[in-house]
Here is the input.
Amino acid sequence: MRELAILRGTAETADELETKLARAIEVLARSTACVSVEANRGVEDPLVFVLNVVWTSVEDHLEFRESELMPEYRSYVSGLLSGAPEFAHYRAISSREGSATAHV
Here is the structure.
């Protein structure tokens, strides 16, 4: 199960948010429910960040939110966002690598 979380920084906080997200995803990765995690920064809008987290299940993700790791994760992004993060869960329905995979 994949979670996409959209976080927005401000002109004053975006660069620091980028740095802190690199540390925050290390906290997410320590969770036994986290399969993988990636942080991305917008190209067209560099104030927007997307966290792409694969969890073992929605239930396990919700348990993480109640764990001792959540306050540590939040400590990295607290005060750097322009509003509340938006997030949603998705299940895969199809996947295929493109021909450029070998060149990335």
In short: The first strand starts at residue 2 and ends at 8. The chain has three helices and four strands. The two ends are 25 Å apart (CA to CA). Residues 23 and 76 are 7 Å apart (CA to CA).
